[in-house]
Amino acid sequence: MANPKRKHSKSRTAKRRSTKKLKIQNLSVCPNCNSIKPPHVMCPVCHYYKGNLVIPVKEKSKEK
Fold first, then answer.
1. I need a labelling partner for 60 at 20 to 30 A (CA). Which of 6, 14, 20, 36 fits?
2. Which residues pair with 37 in a beta bridge?
């Protein structure tokens, strides 16, 4: 196995390690119900995306 010829500096090591950090996800407001949602994704509350209903909401019936 090959060995490094010289020691890598602390700044070079830190630069390499800094790219793997988790980034905070951007959030946007749903124009239909004004709840917070990720951008370019269907709203989890009202199920609308770009003004269109994606998943029809099932109404609960009280029949037994």
1. 36
2. 28
46 in Cβ contact with 55 (< 8 Å): no
d(CA 53, CA 33): 12
Structure tokens at 60: 């609960």
Would the pTM count as exceeding 0.70? no
Question: Is residue 33 assigned to a domain?
Answer: yes
- Per-residue tokens: 12: 């070079």
Average pLDDT for runs of 10 along the chain of length 64: 91 89 85 92 91 80 65
Residue 37: CB atoms within 10 A of its CB come to: 19
**Quick check: is 29 in a domain?**
yes
